[in-house]
Amino acid sequence: MKNSKIKELIWTLVGLAFFIALWISSGDIKPAVWGLLPFALGIAFLLIYKYQQKENND
Fold this sequence. Notes:
single chain, 58 residues, mainly alpha, 3 helices, elongated
């Protein structure tokens, strides 16, 4: 479970869901931008995971 993608996927999907929920509920995209923060964290974690996998294979 050391190299599990669960944490990365959770951050990405929660951020995306938060973004969509804020956008729909407010009718404006400006408040929804806050949902992009956890989404960006999830993407960053996924990139780090991929980089570490590549390093481990070399």
